[in-house]
Structures are given as C-alpha cells and as structure tokens.
Amino acid sequence: MEYQGLNNWEGLLDPLDNNLRAEILRYGNFVDAVYKSFEFDPSSPSYGSCKFPNNTLLDECGLPNTGYKVTKHLTATSSIQQPRWMNKAPTWVTTQSSYIGFVAVCDDKEEIKRLGRRDIVIAYRGTTTCLEWLENLRATLTHLPMPCKRWTTFHKDQTQTTTPMVQSGFLNLYTSPCKSENSESLQHMVRKEISQILQDYAGEPLSLTVTGHSLGAALATLTAYDIKATFISRLSMTTTVVSFGGPRVGNRRFRQQLEKQGTKVLRIVNSDDVVTKVPGLVLHVGEGHEMREQSGHVAEVQRWINKMEKIEWLYAEVGKELRLCSKDSPYLNRVDFATCHQLTTYLHLVDGFVSSKCPFRATAKRFLP
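The structure assignment produced for this chain is given below.
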C-alpha cells in the first residue's frame, strides 16, 4: 500500500525505489495500450474508436500477462460549438466524441495475492483529436459541481458555499454527453462502471488507480476526485492517481479537497516538458499549505492570496512529484518539445532514473522514443 501512496511515497522517490519504479512502469504500460488501441487513421470510417474488443485489447497491445481484464471502453466528448463552415470538413477535424481510455480489473489470483487486493485501473490517453486541442486552450477556471455536500467547504467570513475550480476544457470533456453513446458523458460511464464493480466485488479489499498521460493525466485527477466524492458512503478503498506529463488542473481549493478526501496523486514530471508548466499561474506561498508567522505581514499577504485566488489563471500543483529530466539520459538522440512530452520518453526516464545525485542508470535503454 505504500506504493499506492499510503505514506505519500516518503523515502521512495529519491532514490527511486525499484519496486515503485516497476509499479509506475506497469501503469504507464496501460496508458500506452490506450494509444496503441486508438484508431489514428483519418481515412478510416472508425477513426477515433477503439480498434480492439475488451477481451483482446491488452493482448493486441503487447500486454498478454498483466492479470487484468478490460471491462469498459471509455469515450470523451467535446461540446464546443462548431461554425457552419466546419460541416464540410473531414471527419477527423469535426469528431466530437472519441475513445479515450478503458477500465480494467485485476482478475488473476496470483496478481491479487501479490498486490494484496483486487486493483481497478482506469487509463487515459493524451490529446489526439482537433476538438480536444481546442478544449486544452480553454484555460480559464470554472467551478466544479460538487457530487457530495460533505466535500463542500465553508468560509468563516462568507455565507455562500465555495467550491473548487478546475480548467474549463478538461471539465467539459469529462462531463459533456456523447450523442452516440446513449447520451452518456465520460463521467457517467465511469461512475456507472465503478458502481457495478463495487457491487460485483463487495466485501473484497479493493484499490482504484487512475492513470493517464498529458490530457489523460488531467482527466485522471478529475476522475479520482469525482469517484471518491460520488461513492463516499461506499468507498473505503485507496484511490491513487499516477500521472505522466500532466498539465495543471485546478486551483488551491481543488487541491485542498483532494487532500481532504484522501486521494493520493503521484505526478511524474519531465522538467523539460512545457506541458507540465501550463495552464495559468502558480503561487508558491506557504509550503505545507500554511502561512508561517515569520513576519508582521502574514495577514496582509494572506489577504492578497485570497484576492489572487479569484483570478481565472491562478492554479495550484497537486500531490507528490517525481521530477525527471530528458537531459539526464545519454540515450535520447534529441531533446525538443515533442520528444520531451512523449509517453515513451517518460517511461524511458522512469526506467533510468536513480536519484538526484545519480540521475541515470547506465543499463537503462528501455522505452526509447
């Protein structure tokens, strides 16, 4: 359970614990399987769908012995209003709904024994379609509807209820209904599937791990938050996010709610990856999320922070960070914007990282992009 963040990965990240490395790579392989199962061919009538059925998806993607079975394909939808002239554009330009990930459940006795529980995985890919790129640009913060009143926060000096705020585009992709999927949104699909799994395996020790790359990392954080809040009366299992190259998701209030509900987040970050530095601004004040009274201006600074939090571009980092660097690898032929953000680069860096004092293993050549 320590590898799932029970103790916030204290003492496991620098140097990187070998067992934790293996777990991170294992979840990274699930994300890679989403990419491999996505139909990228724009000339195909099934562009944007999953190429494989549930029962063969992992095998087809080179993961035959994971001990997991895929139970549900997941679809995300953009509700951006398209101008009329786009009606004549190719399908790959106008596609609003597309396959974005899957839910898988551990069903192998030996793997369950190794883990000490039955693990549920939700894996998401990164940005692929044109409308998803547009959603990424909707960087203003918007209030996140609260699925459960218990997670609502009240200010002592306010009579109104305040809620966490998250990036508009990410929330739109998570909550917009899909016309071709019985009007279900990604949010509804996930909730429905998790509810069924909790029913099927009631009484068993369970864990939920949500993992994703890029846009998928943002959706993974939103999903973990939403599932934990939605099933609060039924969900005692550990809920963990393992994200690769994720952008910022929400404001400080969102971070505080994640921490309050006990959701653990491990962010794998490449310091050369621009995507991890957007969107918006980040305010690094009050480490440990508390203002230390080191001067007589604490109250003044706190009032300034409260005002700044109302600005649409003020974001907060979440969880624990494993920081890597492309330049530390002697095996990468080039270090540019695209390479630094690729999932394969992230898996390569995780495989090779030793510690801040010894950045790379000489024998690590796996996952080269």
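Interim note for the steering committee: The radius of gyration is 21 Å. The chain has one domain: 2-352.
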